[in-house]
Design goal:
Undecaprenyl pyrophosphate synthetase; 15% strand
Length: 248
């Protein structure tokens, strides 16, 4: 169902998803090691969480580490995992104070036991947050998620818990990592790349896309407002006609 405000007909933005791209290029432009770009990118994450709370956005999904990123140089992967642990340690109390709930999606079995433990602790400690749900996609790929969901569906049918004849889009969605999270309304990608790179393939079927040349470490509050302003000019039809939208 199309969600519009009662008086202005401006689409409501409940769920913002972001592909955070450009950390390496940001560092390269400044003659710095790639890890410096990732460090600055973490600062942008903190700012975006604050901005989403300010704008009343209830869900923020960040593509933090893809299943393909495991193929990067070992030193860079280790640095990224270290930054993740630092982020959890430095931000957990702030998330508690600000009512931010952490959720993690992806194939977490590929992460080290120490990181899995830290993520589980952070999810548990922040589980009562009501202002914003921060969803980190780690070791995540959209195709992998759909495949894992399909296996769960098959197992559920074999166990007799699911009548395969009653399987529909809504039921299948419940088997995804994001089963209890609404689909994204707006998906932003930074750094000038114009693709979604295996991120939320099922969930983003009707999302609005916003691409910007700005590198992720430079994506600040003003850049977010530009994206939100453009989103508010969009007309989300979900396959309907303009006349049908007018009577909703």
């Amino acid at each position: 169902m199309v969600k519009l405000t009662a008086t202005t007909k401006i689409p409501v933005l409940d769920h913002l998803a972001i592909i955070m791209d450009g950390n390496g290029r940001w560092a390269q432009q400044r003659g710095l090691p790639r890890v410096a770009g990732h460090q600055q990118g973490v600062e942008t994450v903190v700012q975006m969480v604050d901005e989403c709370v300010l704008h009343g956005i209830r869900f923020l999904s960040l593509f933090a580490f893809s299943s393909e990123n495991w193929g990067r140089p070992r030193e860079e992967v280790d640095a990224l995992m270290g930054l993740l642990l630092q982020f959890l340690a430095s931000q957990q109390q702030r998330m508690l104070n600000d009512g931010v709930r952490l959720r993690v999606i992806g194939d977490l079995s590929r992460l080290s036991e120490s990181i899995q433990s830290a993520l589980a602790d952070a999810e548990k400690e922040t589980s009562q947050g009501q202002e914003l749900t921060l969803i980190l996609a780690l070791s995540y790929g959209g195709r992998d998620e759909i495949m894992r969901a399909a296996k769960k569906v098959a197992q559920s049918a074999l166990d007799g818990d699911l009548d395969i004849e009653e399987l529909d889009n809504k039921t299948f969605s419940r088997f995804l990592d994001t089963g209890d999270i609404p689909e994204p309304d707006l998906l932003i990608r930074t750094s000038g790349e114009v693709r979604i790179s295996n991120f939320l393939l099922w969930q983003a079927a009707y999302a609005e896309f916003y691409f910007t040349d700005v590198l992720w470490p430079d994506f600040d509050a003003s850049e977010l407002r530009k994206a939100l302003d453009e989103y508010r000019q969009r007309k989300r039809r979900f396959g309907l006609t303009d006349d049908q939208l007018e009577i909703q």
